[in-house]
Amino acid sequence: MTNRYDVIIIGGGMVGLSTAYHLARRGARTLLLQADDLGGGSSAACSGRAQVAEGRLNPLNLRLITEGLTRLETLEEELGTAFEWRRTGFLALINSQHLWDEWTERSQILTAAGIPTEMLDQAALRNAEPHLNTAGFMGAAHAREGLLNPFLFCWAYAKAARRHGAALRPRTPVTGMRVEGRRVVAVETGAARYQADRVAIMCGAWTGRVARMAGVDVPIRHTHAEAFVTEPMALPLDNTIELANFYETIHGVEQAVSVGFSRDLRGALVVTEAVTQTAELHRKTAAWGLAGMAADLVKLYPALAGVRVVRAWGIPTPFSSDDEPLVGWLPGRDNLFVAAAFLETITAVPVVSDWMAGMILGEAIPADLSPFSPIRFSRCSGNVLCCRGEVTSPLQHKSLSDGLSND
Ligand SMILES: Cc1cc2nc3c(=O)[nH]c(=O)nc-3n(C[C@H](O)[C@H](O)[C@H](O)COP(=O)(O)OP(=O)(O)OC[C@H]3O[C@@H](n4cnc5c(N)ncnc54)[C@H](O)[C@@H]3O)c2cc1C
Known about the structure:
Blueprint: E1 4-10, H1 14-25, E2 30-33, E3 49-50, H2 59-79, E4 86-94, H3 97-112, E5 117-121, H4 122-128, E6 139-147, H5 150-163, E7 167-169, E8 174-180, E9 183-189, E10 193-201, H6 207-211, E11 220-230, E12 239-243, H7 246-250, E13 255-263, E14 269-276, H8 287-300, E15 309-320, E16 326-329, E17 336-340, H9 345-360, E18 384-387, E19 390-392
Helix pairs in contact: 1-5, 1-9, 2-9
Bound molecules: flavin-adenine dinucleotide (FAD).
Flavin-adenine dinucleotide binds next to α1, β11, β14, β15 and α9.
């Protein structure tokens, strides 16, 4: 067994696994080191929605959504493994005039960008979901998004990456990185030391913690989200349901519930989210979260009052301080790449992982990802100070300390 690779990816969620696939497919000798099971972080804990309507409306994000959806249509065939992909409806329930106005404008921009989105008044909403309790809602925004099984999605990428020669090591947490000058020269696990020309940190909410092993502060934060799944049931539910005030509800409060639900292929409901602001990275659940989500679910969909909960979980979910993803080379280190904090991750992954693999190998890629570059968080006054004990050239934008995760 060799310990030398072209690229080492740290983190085996959907972002790391899909990038490993594209690197290996290009012929790069690729090693992926993952702390727990493949996909076992936020990726396996998510609802499996290929979201289209809730993210940023800038040209790059809209392109990722439209191209990502197109790529998802044929991805099972490309990867050689089915992951229960299908298109489904999405309803964002609206309970205030300002949200109605905001979503009306949003729906126009999305539609013009090739993501058809329409506004439904209360009568049309009742028609779309006859068993939904529409009291208190003016109506909803409706779009066509996608749904898949997130476990199988990760597994499909893992199998395809292995087929192309990538070495994937689950249950192998990285414990340290050795830096010489501006380069990461070795990645260490408890049992071994690996070397590569390039190293990519793709650790979701854990990205800040892992980047600090290379002496770099990365402005990734997280919230702790809880969710649960019910027993399968026969239910006339055609759409994924969310509340349009999700971000308003969870913003600036220590704990909040904003209920949303979708149905998997067997008829089980995946119900999200109870959100806690916490510096701790953990996987625990709490009674208030499950009770809060269950109460709001039954208010919205009274027919679910007797349904049984099969399993609940909690997991951190990453975000950056300006809510844009963090993708690119880290300032102060010549061979250290980072990718984390995508907002509509499943939709973006099929396309952005292909582009990231190209970037890591120094190829020209078909899009400019510089709006996502970590350089935007560099200190603006005087010199940029991104790596401990090391000063790089002056660049602009925010103070690094604005976005530091304190996990
Ligand atoms: C309840 C919930 C529902 C969601 N629903 C959706 C949805 O429907 N659609 C959507 O697009 N997004 C959704 N998300 C967000 C989505 O889950 C994340 O954006 C996505 O999983 C991030 O993928 P990732 O690969 O970046 O991170 P992760 O999947 O978290 O992978 C990072 C991995 O890095 C590993 N790691 C950490 N430290 C180390 C180390 N030292 N060494 C090696 N490995 C390490 C971790 O074990 C982890 O598995 C949801 C999130 C939650 C919490």
